[in-house]
Design goal:
- The structure is a single chain.
- The protein is built from 10 helices and 7 strands.
- The chain is α/β, with parallel strands linked by helices.
- Helix 3 packs across helix 4.
Amino acid sequence: MKNIVFDLGGVVFHRDAKKVRKELIDFFAFIFAAKMPLFWEEYDRGTLTFDEVLDELSRSKGCDRAVAEDYLREALDRQEAVPQTAALIRDLKRAGYRLYVLSNMSREFIDFLRRTEIYGCFDGEVVSCEEGVVKPEPLIYEILLDRFGLDPAETLFIDDRRSNLEAAAAFGIATFHFREPESSCTQLREMLLQKE
């Protein structure tokens, strides 16, 4: 394995539930559903703007638009690196792996995350809002492989959604289902950093 590809939300970055009020978690509970709402998928695709998403959020949640904006801005400001994953990324980088991002992410969120220290460890990125395509649509995996000349047989993709992993596996990319940071990062360390 030479190339390690990371999903961002829920793998590299999260909102720490211990630091966030329950109302915020409840408001965005749809993010953990098996299928994202269409309006959020289109936000990630880059076809809905921040303002349009606020309209959809206030409508779907039955709340005032200003309330929806407060929640969305707080959700953005509360993004932080998952400590276990950040440590793993630094160690993989030191070990000589090439590290990439493949993520469904909206413009406002990716702009925020790119300013973090850990984001500087990545050698390349494919972000849905800039490509007009989202996982698990096949085209986004083709873009990743072609843009960086990656051999699927030498590439591992880490994501917390099975549907995204299944789509990657169809290209011959190795996959890892990220569940809980402590155990998942321990397993990845054993796979990628333990010497024979």
